[in-house]
Amino acid sequence: MAITMREVAVAAGVSIKTVSNVINNYPYIRPDTRERVLKSIEELGYQPNLSARGLRSGRTGVISLIIPDLKNAYFAELADAVMRAAAKHGLVVIIEQSGGKRERELEILHGPRMRMVDGVLYSVLGLGQEDAALIEIPTPMVLLGERIFNGPTDHVTMRNTEGAEAATEHLLSLGRSRVLAFGTHPNEVIGSAGLRLAGYRRALEARGLSYDEALAVNVQSWHRADGAAAMRGVLDSGLDFDGVVAFNDVIALGAMRVLQEAGRRIPEDVALIGFDDIDETRYTLPTLSTIDPGREEIAETAVRMLLERIESGGIPPREHEAQFRLVPRESTGTAAH
Amino acid sequence: MAITMREVAVAAGVSIKTVSNVINNYPYIRPDTRERVLKSIEELGYQPNLSARGLRSGRTGVISLIIPDLKNAYFAELADAVMRAAAKHGLVVIIEQSGGKRERELEILHGPRMRMVDGVLYSVLGLGQEDAALIEIPTPMVLLGERIFNGPTDHVTMRNTEGAEAATEHLLSLGRSRVLAFGTHPNEVIGSAGLRLAGYRRALEARGLSYDEALAVNVQSWHRADGAAAMRGVLDSGLDFDGVVAFNDVIALGAMRVLQEAGRRIPEDVALIGFDDIDETRYTLPTLSTIDPGREEIAETAVRMLLERIESGGIPPREHEAQFRLVPRESTGTAAH
DNA sequence: GGACAACTCTACAACGTTGGAAAGTTGAGC
DNA sequence: GCTCAACTTTCCAACGTTGTAGAGTTGTCC
Fold first, then answer.
1. Domain span at residue B39?
2. Which of A83, A116, A257 lies nearest to residue B51, judging by beta carbons?
3. pLDDT tens sequence across B12-23
4. Hey, are the CB atoms on B51 and A62 less than 8 Å from each other?
């Protein structure tokens, strides 16, 4: 059995509660008493039992991060950022993969694990506004991603529309006139795809150009292979285009590969920009221009907000939009050097 | 406050212990009693308090996975596989990133979090044999990766040497004669780099070829940018070669980009094979031949072994080597179709 | 030197669960 | 109808920690 406070207390010649007080930085302890207790803790190698602490205090020091899929580079990088942000506050992160499935997200949100964590960061994918009532769980929660729900929940989002607008304007400013919106989800308004499409349209409007539905390319699932398949379809259809605003990086990379195989030069024949700024975009050939959604800011803000909510209930719901950044690289002929 | 067993017990008209017995599948319960209890659990939405259970039973249902870095695709995919394997046994996984730093690995291994988990899967990177005593922790542990320690610990490893041998033989059988060992760590014997180099040499030997030290390319850190930088160095040096056995996929991809920029055709001028079979290798241009180290098998075996060790102490240390698989793709001119 | 505040430490009772063992019930076998 | 085993439920204590309340100790100020 491991060392408990009782043994530390005996060794230091104090009560158990005093040991607890030392550990929890209770201010009224004589320096030499504190000293003695710390020495015993050190010597015995005492480590607090977090289950007991959790039971007694109601706090476990664990938060949950619900994401669709860790194999997706965007979410792996998000998870990394969240874990680093959480570590700064002494929190551990349990990652739950939802696969973006509605059923699975509900299962996680209402499963027994929620009782084990102090709060949840939930990157919504499977649920929609019609499920708003279902996400009303007792555990403190901060939503990541888009503002899908109107409920009284904290949101930390990226500027999807503004980002996509900047990406599109970037291509237009380079003289491209037939730019694909690559990765649309028909009829979606409020998700990433809908918001990014809105930004794309806004950029066209700002230049007095009209929106051509033929240039909107549907890519249902934003994986590399789907991007490749969709671009193959576009090439087969004979559609004329000279620019691509891909709604995320991996479908951009899938498309890039197909374009290159087909002999289209990037950026000469087709200028291509992605969204997410995943690490890989810095090392492809050509390097991929993209929109950095402000991942670090998202992670730090979300953890901070969650902690505030855990520590004091009754905070009115807040919203934070992280600052995005256009990252020009070779795929739009605008690499930094 | 959340629902507790007490309230379920009152609702069902039984004692708390009977509720506990129902939940834990104690066999001697009358069917109608069980029925009533389950109904009350359902109606009240009872969920067990895992802290309390953990305190009482000593088990938390959480295991820890220590890996260097989640942004590294290999480890992201490993984490995914481990989480799925763990979920099958009702376990949650806490991921701890060590950055491959010795200090940080020790900190994690001896930190208070270890008290919160039932066991650890530890992907060793920073520690070495000289630290063998330091990994003797009370928490059940299974080591992943290479057999770095000789201590009494379970190991689940990949066949580094055999895999690298097969990769090298693959290039040799295609007629390549000057094949780089790309990613060596000088003087290392027992780590991945050392073992893979041994496989490379074994393949040469098997064909009666002698080992040329000039063809061993040092890449200290196995990241994409380091692979790119190292390949730039090779090209600058004017070294003559027609094949590359890269010791992992991302340095292979970094090198591939540099080779393409320099106008070398793959596989015509240089045949290239990696190691790890990360998802991305299926979508690059050209697709990358690689060695699948048997990730699923590693994850499932590791979780199973850990669980066995958690459930019954005193098991003699075991070792398991997962089966590897050569995955021929376009970068060696051997794509399946 | 008395009152009061500020400090320092401790006893006790929880938190919600499960292990152990006892108490109570049923039914089969003779 | 009695015995004994098998079944069913309950009682009690404990897991290791912290909140509450209070006891004891100083020290300051009039």
1. 5-44
2. A116
3. 999 999 999 999
4. no
